[in-house]
Each structure stands twice: as C-alpha cells, then as structure tokens.
Fold each of these.
Amino acid sequence: MKFNYAKSFLKSLLFTVALASPFSVFAHAIMVKSQPEQNTTITASPKQIDVWFNDKVGGEYKAVAVIDSKGNRVDNKDVQQEILDGSHLYCTVPDLPPDTYTVRYRVVSIDTHIVTGKFQFTIKP
Ligand SMILES: [Cu+2]
C-alpha cells in the first residue's frame, strides 16, 4: 500500500516535470544580439542601444542602462520595447565621447524569471 502510493506520487511528479520543463527552458530570456555588438570598438557614438532576446520579454520592469568608465549613467533613461517584436528593447543616448561603456539590462522572462546581464563596447575616435 505504502509502496504503491509512493510509486504513483513519483509517476505524477515525473509527469509534471516532463510537462513543465520545455516551457521553462524555452521561455527563459537570453540576450542574443545587441547594437553596438558586445566587445566591439566603434568610431562614433551610436544614437541608440538595441538589445534583442531569444523570446518576447515582459513589458514591465524592463531596464537598459549605459554606464561610462567612471560609473556614471549616460543614457537618456527612455527604454522602449518594440511593439511588433517584444524581444527587442532599446534606449537612446546623447552624443557619447570616446570611452568604454557598459550596458546593463534587466528583463522579466515569459517564465517569470528575472534576467540581468551586461556587455561592453568602446568608442575610439
Ligand atoms: Cu527562466
């Protein structure tokens, strides 16, 4: 009796895991592309910073910040999500002087996980 109960519990647990896993795997947001690209050196200031994820991300709690080498935030604090492509976030920047910049982002995945990350690019005259 006890054994049967444990066995059926295990069975239903495995079934639940099997059902849930594909969703957790595929809906977890991962950055797949950016403009400027990660670790590149460019010769002029971009007008905006674009970040693309592997899947649509939540419209709330999204953040993209651009930080200069002294730790100052330099973007225009105007993060937007593209209406027709929910995997694409962008913010505008003023004319940036030569420096190495860090872009930090935070989004909420479809699976409700909060994803944060960063990458750098350099502007050289
Ligand atoms: Cu996730």
Amino acid sequence: MQAYSLRLYDSLAEEVGQQVDSHVVGGFFLAQSKERLREFSFLAGKFRALGLEYELVTPREILAKHPLINTDGLVGGAWDPEEGYVDPYSVTMGLAAGARQYGARIERGQRVEAIEGVNGEWRLRVGDDVWSCQSLVNCVGFWANDVANMIGTRLPITNMEHHYLVTENIAQIEGLDYELPMIRDTDSGFYLHQEANGLLFGPWEQDCRAPWDFGMELFDHDLDRLEDGITSACRRSPKPASSASSTARSR
Ligand SMILES: Cc1cc2nc3c(=O)[nH]c(=O)nc-3n(C[C@H](O)[C@H](O)[C@H](O)COP(=O)(O)OP(=O)(O)OC[C@H]3O[C@@H](n4cnc5c(N)ncnc54)[C@H](O)[C@@H]3O)c2cc1C
C-alpha cells in the first residue's frame, strides 16, 4: 500500500491536474537491541522482495542525516528512503478529482443513518431519501463500527485517544538547508518529525482512553500519561528539548 500510495500521489498532477504537496524526507527506525535489529533485517529482506528500499544503518549514519539525535544506547537502525508525509488537503482533492473523472458522483454533508439489505441490493437511509446500490464500502474512519452495527455486525477495531506535541521553532533546525528525516523509536514508543522549523513528537501511549462520541475536535491534554514518552524523547533528542517549550494536543 505504501508503494502504491507514493506512485498514486505522484501521478495525480499529470492525471487530474492536482499537485500533491508531498515531502519524501526518508525515515529512520531506531533499534536499541540486537533483537530489534534482527527484526529490521527480516523486514529489509521482505521489502526488497516487494521492490522497496529499506536498509540497515549504523548509529553514525543516523547521526549524519539527523544531527539532533542522541545515538547513545542505539545498536543501529533501518533507513527507509521513501518515508515522508503529504498534505492531506491536496491528496483528498486529488483523489476526489480522479474519482469524478472516472464517473463517481460525490455527495457531501450526507449522513447514512440506516442500512437495509433488500432483494440483493443495499438500501441506505440518508435524511428523507433512500439510496440503493449493489456494493457498499464502509470507509467512515473511526465511525466504522457505527456503520457496521447498522447491518448487525462488528469490526475488530477500537478508537484510541492519542497525543502529539509540537515544539516552537528550534534554532538548529532553522539553520539546516534540508528537511530532517522522520524518526520512529519503536523500543521507546514514539515518533518524531520536523514540523515547520520545530519538531512534532507523538508517543504510542499505553492506557489510552477510547472515546466514541466526538468529531474532529481536540481533547484536553493529559500530560501525566505522557511522562514516560516525553522523558524518552528528551533523552533521544535533548537539544531541541532544552531550547524549546512545547504545546500538547490530543486527538
Ligand atoms: C490530528 C490528526 C493527525 C493525523 N496525522 C496523521 C499522520 O501524520 N499520518 C497518518 O498516516 N495519519 C494521520 N492521522 C490519521 C489519518 O488522518 C486517518 O488514518 C485517515 O484520515 C483515515 O482516513 P479514512 O478515509 O479511513 O477516514 P476519515 O478521514 O475519518 O473519513 C471518514 C469520513 O466518513 C464520514 N462519515 C462518518 N460516518 C458517516 C455516516 N454515517 N455517513 C456518511 N459519512 C460518514 C466522516 O464524516 C468522514 O468524512 C491523523 C489524524 C488526525 C485526527
């Protein structure tokens, strides 16, 4: 899917005239143990078989591309040159333009409230209307179980509240003439990537709450739950931590 998405996003400019703002900055996966490095080695073979690049690297090679990282305690890591991020607005608009080009009709602001299977077709109640179709794709994100429940089934997924923190601008990053690669510290459980001229830090938290009734708003933060993650991130990237205050957001 990763390889397919990259090629798809790249092709949207030519195919539907939508330039996607994509930042393929590369990414490091950090290993604090030989076992983790063995896992990366296994993945490298698997990715190569799929035609993707993914190579093992030394702490020194990590430092050469990411000078803000403290490599103490690292056995090595893996480098994925195609890691990165895209601007979600331009991707969504590009995919919508492509769908319309190939015959789709997009109805916005319409909520499916009930689904019924009748004589081999689906009937969807949308406000006062009933829409019929042969095939129905449940792609409503974290509301997917609400829609699955409409036909009496459940999906094996759950929702997790998750924090991320954005630092203020950091002088060392402002001085760089390239964008920093992404970092995933699997053993400590967080990711880190450049956000404007600061860093965005996201911990993979334990003991998450699982809210169901909300939309796109941000929650209040719960900094106590982040203590371990923040401590690990400050150890791994101490320079920005000592020079910037940060803002916590929860989603
Ligand atoms: C703040 C934030 C930052 C994120 N950052 C990253 C990131 O850096 N990298 C990354 O990979 N992912 C990130 N994610 C996750 C990523 O955004 C989601 O995984 C992705 O958007 C899911 O896409 P989707 O199309 O499956 O669902 P969604 O984007 O959630 O779309 C589902 C749609 O279904 C609609 N819907 C719901 N119920 C109904 C109904 N009954 N009838 C009709 N329509 C309905 C909703 O209104 C919504 O428009 C982030 C998410 C958030 C909130």
